[in-house]
Task: structure prediction
Amino acid sequence: MLKSSYQQSVLRSNLFVVWNELVKNIKSLLAYPAILVFWAVFPIFWFIPFILQGQAFVGGLESASFAQITGSGEYVPFIVIGAVLNSYVNTLLYGMGENIRREAYQGTLDYVLAAPCNKAYVLIGKALSESLSSTIFAASQLTISVLLFGMNLTLGVMLPVFFIVILLMLGLYGMSLILAALSLMYKQSYDLSQTIGYVFYIFAPVRYPVESLPTWAQIFGKLIPLTYALIIVRSFMLLGTNFSAVYFEVLALLIIDIVLLLAGFYLFSWMEEKTKKSGTISHH
Amino acid sequence: MNKNNKEHRLREVKCPTGFNWSNLKAELKAVWESNIKDWKIDFAYPVSFIRQLISPLVFLLPFLIYGLALVGGRYSPNLKQLVGTDDVVAFIFTGYIMMGFIGTAVWAMGFSIRRERWFGTLEAIYVTPSSRLGQVLGMALHSTVHQILGTIIQFIVIYLTFGLALKIEGILPALGIFALMMLALYGFGIVISALGLILKEGWVVSDSLYSIMMILSPVAYPLAVLPTVAQQASYLFPTAPALIGMRSFLIENYQPEVVGNVFLHLLALGAAWILFGIVVFRVTDVYVRKRGMLKKF
Amino acid sequence: MVYDKESGVFSIQTINLTKRFAKKKHRGVFGFLRRNQSNNKHNDVTVALDKVNIKIHSGELFGLLGPNGSGKTTTIKCLSTILIPDEGTAIVNGFDISKETSMVRASLGMVVGGERTLYWKLTARDNLMYFASLYKMQRRHAKKRIEELLETMQLSDRADERLEDYSTGMRQKVAIARALLHDPPILLLDEPTLGLDPNFARQIRNQIKELSEKQGKTVLLTTHYMDEADQLCDRVAFINNGKIVAVDTPNRLKAMVKEKELVEVVVYRPPAGIEKHIRSLLPDAEVIKLIPGDEDEGNPSRIKIIGGTAEEHVGTIIDALRQKNVRIGSLNVGVPTLEDVFIKLTGAKLTEDGI
Result:
């Protein structure tokens, strides 16, 4: 409960920071229309080879082996869901680190960090802008995929799916904060983001069921928020289940989100202090 | 040129030019030094260097694991019907090692000039008497060696994990096909590097072309699963005939989908893409210098 | 060393060099939906160089002086073949810039000030070795030359450290070393002291002077620092809005503004319209120019009055300022600088964007 008008005005100015950061990033994105079109459409090209591979290897649109493992043999919607959610990861995870790296390159990072506002709100603004653009791109890719591959999607599942996506985003925010913190100190933030992306790509069930991996890899995969998000969303969209069938996965996702968010905020504050003291804040 | 200018030249400048051995040697040396420079910069970013070495493996594994999960094992009867071999691992591995080299053309070469612009050294390079193509070819050499290292790592991991059955006697002709494919890819890469100078979002072009080539090349599936139009389009790029040719030499029982001499096909493609690349590069060079775009991002 | 002006041989000669750039207006993401407001084609083009004719003798240290956007860098870029002119041409060391580009590049070395032009992740030695190969130098010769240059630039001790650990001044020295690798007869220096502290700037200027006087190199130096041009150059050309306004030795140019003609008043917080007010009282003055300063930085504004009877009207000037309650710091008569000549000839300040 806000006790004074001073606290109210502080809150207003922090929200103002969030809003302006969001608007600035969206305007920067709109300055590159080719990039908008690219992210809205081209990630589809990345998973078309998997669909064609499926046709070559099983000679149809259903895989008996997939059905045995996942309950559904339809590998095309399996791939599409994995690709769309993974592209969320791409734009959100890389976006934050890349955003900060761009500030450093343009020479504005010093000024942002020297400003008196709470930097957490700057990061929230950045995260919101990445989330907004990711959601638009994901929606575009999903729409095109439904039209191209004739998938059946009922609107009834979209609301619970959207809820799971929000949970996934929270976990990714936490990861982004960790990456942003590391990028303040270690200038090779792009490589860090990419390496984490690799881990997600191999150990999360983006292209194949997590059960296809060796046991040790499955354990590793179950530490990744994307794994649970994919299992839950596929369960809703391919098997027509509801929350009661996946409550364990939802709970696991929530716990991972909390851990990542807390770790991210703490690490960022600590790194910010450390780099200010060492004077390496905008070296790139 | 006014003859009088020659007579009034104030100081002789010793610099090889034109079509002669001395100039060729100097240009090749510049290409080599450009390659060395790129390696030195690479080693200055060790995390990036290691990541780039393992990234071919990272992108190969999903194709393999997915393929095995689809079929429920290593051998696909449907694949055997299409191309005579049912070995999913050998098929995907021989296909995927090509993707790294497509990356050489599309990403490494495609970004070589833009990368110099990002460093701020592009104008300093353009002021020297060496050919600008030397930059692109230096990066091509660097990236090719990089990819070869990545391929070796891929081979070791896949061999140890899954085992690989490849015909040893087919390695030499496969390498010949590979060399011809690289020639054509270099030409393609020169085109992309030229476009990278004039297009603000050059990486969008690179990524789009990479994705298109990935679909049109029989990396993870035989050409037969593509629509006919796409199959025909794939022959404009060297990767399709090269992959088919290499597989026919390396994989037991493989029945190539293409009728004709793959060596001649690749030679013709190589000559065409190299010539086209040089023309586009020259035209773009003049265009960029006329509009003063060397510095612009 | 006196440059060889009597021989009639020119190291650099531009012949009606002209360069235009199309203006690009940003109209937003949906700008294509809006009708084009202006149909005036002239407004869509910037003339960066307008029939520029310069002749630079062998061994001369020639300055090109002008404000930002006047065409200095464009001139350098055309001569170095980075930019292709729209009309005219130039002859550099006897080679035409449009027909013999390789030989032109082999004949010159270029230094650009205030920017990244080297590989920061490489050492000075690695940078120089790489560029030596681009200048088609033989390896043995390149190694020897690099050692000589590192010694001259006093960088031998740190030659194997990465450039990212160097100061700006040290990096500029490496850039100069790069320009000298192949011992070119001609050097193009585009604001080489920009962004350097006074100590390094002085070192660089001394090196430039040495290159011209002792090694007989032809140097084309562009700058907007009048002191630099005054101190270093054998001759200076003023350039404004892409046109050459005057070319002569610094002393002869300064003689265009006779001592008696110049009055300079240091003022604090001058009000808007002060120039107009003084003009109303001194209608015969040729130039009345307010040069705004930054008083918070300890740099007050100055008013320059140039005209035949400026000295006689000192009293009028003081009265005019008092009428407007302007605080006067000091008043000087005479001692013209190159900037005064530039203002007289163009009405523009050297540190303003071209008007």
